[in-house]
Amino acid sequence: MAIIVINPNSSTSMTRQLEQECRQLDGLHHELCFETCNGSPGSIEGHSDGAMATFYLLEKIRAYENSRESSHASAYVIACFDDTGLEAARELTSRPVIGIGEAAMHAASLLSHRFCIMTTLQRSVPILQRNLDHYGLTNRCAGVFASNIPVLQLESNPDAYDQVLTAARTALQHSHGEALILGCAGMSQWVHAMEQDLGMPVLDGVRIAVKFAESLIDLKLMTSKVGSYRYPEFKGYD
Amino acid sequence: MAIIVINPNSSTSMTRQLEQECRQLDGLHHELCFETCNGSPGSIEGHSDGAMATFYLLEKIRAYENSRESSHASAYVIACFDDTGLEAARELTSRPVIGIGEAAMHAASLLSHRFCIMTTLQRSVPILQRNLDHYGLTNRCAGVFASNIPVLQLESNPDAYDQVLTAARTALQHSHGEALILGCAGMSQWVHAMEQDLGMPVLDGVRIAVKFAESLIDLKLMTSKVGSYRYPEFKGYD
Amino acid sequence: MAIIVINPNSSTSMTRQLEQECRQLDGLHHELCFETCNGSPGSIEGHSDGAMATFYLLEKIRAYENSRESSHASAYVIACFDDTGLEAARELTSRPVIGIGEAAMHAASLLSHRFCIMTTLQRSVPILQRNLDHYGLTNRCAGVFASNIPVLQLESNPDAYDQVLTAARTALQHSHGEALILGCAGMSQWVHAMEQDLGMPVLDGVRIAVKFAESLIDLKLMTSKVGSYRYPEFKGYD
Amino acid sequence: MAIIVINPNSSTSMTRQLEQECRQLDGLHHELCFETCNGSPGSIEGHSDGAMATFYLLEKIRAYENSRESSHASAYVIACFDDTGLEAARELTSRPVIGIGEAAMHAASLLSHRFCIMTTLQRSVPILQRNLDHYGLTNRCAGVFASNIPVLQLESNPDAYDQVLTAARTALQHSHGEALILGCAGMSQWVHAMEQDLGMPVLDGVRIAVKFAESLIDLKLMTSKVGSYRYPEFKGYD
Amino acid sequence: MAIIVINPNSSTSMTRQLEQECRQLDGLHHELCFETCNGSPGSIEGHSDGAMATFYLLEKIRAYENSRESSHASAYVIACFDDTGLEAARELTSRPVIGIGEAAMHAASLLSHRFCIMTTLQRSVPILQRNLDHYGLTNRCAGVFASNIPVLQLESNPDAYDQVLTAARTALQHSHGEALILGCAGMSQWVHAMEQDLGMPVLDGVRIAVKFAESLIDLKLMTSKVGSYRYPEFKGYD
Amino acid sequence: MAIIVINPNSSTSMTRQLEQECRQLDGLHHELCFETCNGSPGSIEGHSDGAMATFYLLEKIRAYENSRESSHASAYVIACFDDTGLEAARELTSRPVIGIGEAAMHAASLLSHRFCIMTTLQRSVPILQRNLDHYGLTNRCAGVFASNIPVLQLESNPDAYDQVLTAARTALQHSHGEALILGCAGMSQWVHAMEQDLGMPVLDGVRIAVKFAESLIDLKLMTSKVGSYRYPEFKGYD
C-alpha cells in the first residue's frame, strides 16, 4: 500500500525533484509512489493545459483502481498547485485524494490569519482565486500574486529565486500577509531558504499534502461516495 | 461562417434533436453547424464525465481553429448544461464561446427576480451550484433541483415529462421561483409545453445560447485574449 | 411592433445619438423606436436624479402599455447605465425590459474573466457597485472607475476621449481587467475607437441591450408575472 | 426644530396612527412633525408603488430644505418599511435621514443573533431582502416572511392580528429567529401585544427610527456630504 | 437605574476621560455609571488581551445582575472598540448590551455609503474586520487602518493627534471613505476637532453607544433570551 | 516534547476518555500529554462558558510556555468543538495550535462536497456557524444541527447514541450532506459505530487535530508571529 503522488504534467524531472524532497520528510510512515503523466503538457499554465492534463491524470487513477495495482494505493496526491482534475479524481476512488493547492491553503489558515500565494504567471491567478472561492478560503487569502516566471524557468533561470523572493516581500508588505504559500510545485525546493529569508511560515503544498494523506489514512477516513463523488455511471463511450 | 454548436457528449440523437429545435428559431440570421463528440461519454453526469468530454470538445474546437475550417466558425456554443470545458475552450479561440447553462442563467436573471433550475440527477446539483457561484448568479437562483431521471431516460421514459413537471411545480412553490430553467439539453423539446403548463417563463439554454451568439457576432464582440483566456503556450506534449 | 429604447433623461441630443448608433447595428431585424423623458433631469448623476427620471420613465411605459400604442411595443430598453427604474418598469409590463448597464455587465462576463467599468463621476460608482451586487456580478468586475468628466461634457469637451482612454489604461493595468465597459450611454460613440486603442473587448450597453432584446423577442421570452414583477395593484392615488 | 416623520404613501389615517404611537414614546425630547405624501399610492407594495412614492417624498423634503421651513427640520424619518427613496433623500439634505426598515434591522441585530421579519405580501419580500443585502444584515436575518395580508387590510380585517401572530410563530420556530421585526408601518400598533404573545423582542421601526433620530441629533451627527450623498447638481429639468 | 458603562481594561484614567465626555452629551436623560475592570490588561491590543479582559468584564456584569445592585442597571455599554466579550455579556442579562464598536459601525452606515475606521495597531485590524463580518457591515466599510500608535500613547504622545489625522486623510482619500470612525475609546476626546479638520462625519463609539442605550431603554427593548443569548446553565465550576 | 491536548472544560472524565481514544490512533509517532482546565465550567455551552474556559486555557498554555515545561510542548490541541480561545492561544506561542472544530471542518472539506455538523444544544449552533464563517467553510457545510442533548448527558443518557443517530439521518437526508462531523468532543467514542450506521465518513475532531498536529510538527511549520498572532505586549495587569 502506498500514497500515489501524481504529477499531472509530463515533466519527469519535476517528478524526480518532488520525490527527492518528500523522501526527506520527518515522521514519514507510509510508502510513497511517484507518477508522471506522459501525454500531458510539459507544465500546466491555464485552463486548457489543465483540461488536457486531467485526461491523463484520470487514466492514471483508473489504472490503479481497476487493476491489481489497486491494492497498492492508499491515497492519491495531485501534485499541481491548480489542483488539476481534483473533483473528477474523487469520483473514481473511495481513497482520499488531496490536491497540493488545497492542502497548502488549509494548512496556512491554521497558522496565520491571512496568507499570500506567490504563483508563476498572471494567467494562473484567476484559477487559484476560483479554487480559493470553492474551498471557502478567499477571505483568509491576502492576495494571489504572479512572479511572471514561467514554470519551466523556475529551475533554469538562475535569478528565479531572487525574483520570486523580491516579489514575495513586496506582496506580503502591501497585503499584510502573515504566511507565504509557494504557488507552484516547481518552487518546492525553495521552502526552507525562503522561510529563513522571510521570517514567517512558508508552505509547500507537496509536502503538506503527503503528510495530510498520511493522517487521513491513519484516521481511516475515506472520500465520501454519497452524493457528489459517487462513482461515475458507465454509459458506454461510443 | 457558422455558429458551431457542439454537443460535448457522444449521443448523435441528442445532437439531431437540438439541431431540429434550433432551426425553428425566429429571426435566425447566421448559419448553424452541429457537432457531436465521439469518444465522449454518452451523457455527462458528474465531474469525471465532464472531464472526459472536455478532452474531445477541445479537440473539436482546435480542429476548427487550426485548419481551413476555421474560416467557417464565427462562434461556439457548448451544448451541455454543465458548461463542460467552457473556460478551457475560451483559451483556444478569439471567437465568442457560450455555454448553454450560463446563457440560460443570465437570461433568466433578466426576466425574473429568482429562478429555479430543474436538472436530472442529484450529482449534477453541486456542479451547477458551483457554476452559479462562478457566474455570480447564486443569489438570483431560488434553488437547483434534481428530478432523479437520468439524461438518457428523458427521451425513453414516457412519464419523464410528467415527473419533471410535478417536481418543478413543487420546487417553484416552495422556493418562490419566478421562472424555470431546464437544466439539461435533453429537456429542450419540452420548453413550450412546460411554459404553458407552469404559466411562467421556461428557459432552454440551447436556444438562448444560439441567439446570444448571434448577438455577439452582430456586435463584433470577441473573447478577450488579454489575461485569463490568452492562447495556451505550446510547451510540447511529451 | 418595435423595441422601445427609452432615454430616461431629458437630453434629446443624446437620444438622437443613441438612435444613430443603433440603426447601424448588424443583423437588426426588429423595429426600433426611441423616446426621451421630458421633465427628467438633463443627465442622471446620483440617486436623486435617478429617482426623478424613474417617475417620467414609468409614465412613458405606462402610456405604451395602457393605450393603443401598446401593440407597438415588443420590448423596452432603458438607456441609462444606472439601469434607472428597471425593477419598477418590469412590474408594468410582461414584455422584456433590459437595462443597458445589466446588458453590458452580463455580456462582459461571457467574454472575459474580469471586466472594468469606466463611468463619469465618483458619485455614480456606489450606484453601479450596488447594481453589480444585485445582478451578482461583483466578483466578475475588476473595478468601477470614475473619469471625473460629467455626462454632459462627454460631447462638449474635446479632450474627453483622451482623458477617459488614459484613465481606462491605468485602471485596466492595475486591476488586471480583461475587457472594458463604457459606463455611460454618452460614451457609446467611442466604442470602436477605444476597442482599437485598448486591444481588448470594449462594450457599449446600448447596442448590447438592443441585440439582447431582439434575442428575447425571437425566443418569445417574457418578463415573469409571478412574484416580484406582478402588475401593481391600483389602490387609488389620493 | 423638529424631526420630520414622512409617511411616503397617501394614507392620512396611517399617518395619524403613527403620530399617536410616537407621541407616547418614553424620553421624547425633540419635537415631531408628521407628513403624508398626497399623490402617492395609498400603500406601497412593490417597486412601482415605491418609485411613485419616492417622487412625492423627495418633493416634501425639498420643500423643507429650500424654504424657510428648513429651519424647522432637524432630521427626517421615512415611515415605510421598504425605506422608500432613502438614498435619494440623503442627497437632498445634510440632516440625518433614517428609514424605519433599516432602523429596525440595525436595532434587532443589537438584541438578537438572528431576527425574523414579518411583512405583508410576498412581492415585498425581495425588496426587503435586497435592502438587507445593501445594509449588510442578510446573515443576521433568519428569514423574511409574508403574512399575505395587504397593507390596507391590516386595520380593516379583524382577524389580521391573529393571522400575523400565527404566521410569526411558525416562521420563528422553523428559522430559529430570536426577535421579530414588524415589516410594515401599518403593524406598529401591535408591537406590545405581540411582544407579550411571543415572549421575545418585537420591533417596530417607526418608534426606533424616531429614537435613533433623536440620538443622532443629540450627537450632532449629520449625513456625509462627501461622496455618495453629495447634493445633486442642478442641470435643468427640460 | 443607570446605564453601566464598563471600560474592560484597567486604566482608570481612560474611564475618567470617557465619563467626562459622556456627561456633556446633549439630551442625556438616563443616569450613567462608569466602571473599570481591575485585573484586566492596561489596554486591549489583540485576542489575548481581549480574552483576559472578558473574564473581568463578565465578573462585573454578574455582580450587577446577581446582587441588589441589579436594580440599578438599565443597560450596559462595553467601552472597548473591539467589543470585548459582547456576546458572552449578552448571555448574562436581559438588559441591552451595546459595544462601542458596533454602535459606531451601525451609526456610520446610517450617515454614509462607506466609512473608514482608524485604529491603533495593525494587530487590531483583523479583530475589527472579523467584527465587521459578524455584524454584516464589511461592505459598508471602505477600510480599517492602523495609525501604529499604541493605545496608551494616544494621551501621552503630543504628536498623536496630528499623526492620526494625517493617516486618516490618506486613508479616506484612497478608499473613498465618506465618514471616519475613531477605532479606539482612547481617541474619544478628538471627535469634534477631527470632524472640523476632515469636513465629514467623525464618529466616537462611546457617545453613540450611550445614546443608543438610552433609545433602547426608552423603547423598552431588551436582549432576546430565546436562542443564542439564553442565560448560561450553571453546571458547577470544579 | 509532546503534543499538549487541552480539554478547556473541567471534566476530568471527558479528558480521560479523549486520552484513551487518541492513544489508539494508527501511526502515532509523537508523545501526547492531556490537560484539564480546573476552574472552567463542567462543559462549554454558549459564549459565556467559552469565555470563562478561555481564561483557564490561556493560563495553562502560559504555564507551558513560560516555565521549564516549555521544552515539552511541540504543539497544542484545543479539545472543545467550539475552538474555545483558539485565536488568543495562538498569540501566546509560536508552536502550532489546532482546534478540534476547525480540524474536523477542514478535513471534511477534503472528503466531501458538503458536510453536516451534529452538535448538542441549539445555543451552540450560532457559535459554530460563526466559526464556519471565520474559517471560510460556510458554503461547504450543508447545515449545523442540534440534537438537543446536553454535553454531560451524552455519556449518562443510554438513548443518547440512538437519538443523535436518528437526528443525523434526518439532517443528512434533507440537506444532502455527504459526511457527518461529530460536533462535540463528548461524542468522540461514537465515531466508528456511527460511520458504520450511516455509510459515509464520520469525523471526530479530536483524533484529526492530533494527527494534523503531528503533520505540522513533522513539516516544521509554526504559528506565524508576524501580524495577528504576535506575542501580546505586557502592559501590566493592575
State the main characteristics.
globular; Rossmann fold; homohexamer; four-stranded parallel sheet; alpha/beta; 2 domains; 8 strands; 16% strand; 238 residues
Structure description:
Chains A, B, C, D, E, F: Keywords: Isomerase. Six copies of one chain form a homohexamer. Chain A has 238 residues and is α/β, with parallel strands linked by helices. Chain A contains nine helices and eight strands. In chain A, the strands form two sheets. The first copy, chain A, has a four-stranded parallel sheet, sandwiched between helices. In chain A, strand 5, helix 5 (125-135) and strand 6 form a beta-alpha-beta unit. In chain A, helix 4 packs across helix 9 (205-218). The N and C termini of chain A lie far apart (34 Å). At the A-F interface, helix 4 and helix 9 of A face helix 4 and helix 9 of F.
Helix percent of chain A reads 40-55%
Distinct helical segment count of chain A: 9
> Which architecture name of the largest domain in chain A does CATH use?
3-Layer(aba) Sandwich
Instruction: Give the SSE order of chain A as H and E letters.
Output: EHEHEHEHEHEHHEHEH
Q: Biggest sheet of chain A: strands, sense, closure?
A: 4 strands, parallel
Report the β-strand fraction of chain A as a percent range. 15-25%
Content-based structural category of chain A: alpha/beta
CATH class bucket of the largest domain in chain A: Alpha Beta
The CATH topology of the largest domain in chain A turns out to be: Rossmann fold
Q: Could you state the oligomeric state of the chains shown?
A: homohexamer
Shape of chain A: globular
Task: Give the total of domains of chain A.
Answer: 2
Radius of gyration of chain A: 17 Å
Biggest interface, residues from each chain: A-F, 51 and 51 residues
Cα(first) to Cα(last) distance of chain A is 34 Å
Rounded average pLDDT of chain A: 94
Strand order of the largest sheet of chain A: 2-1-3-4
EC number (chains A, B, C, D, E, F): 5.1.99.-
Keywords (chains A, B, C, D, E, F): Isomerase
Protein name (chains A, B, C, D, E, F): Hydantoin racemase
GO molecular function (chains A, B, C, D, E, F): amino-acid racemase activity
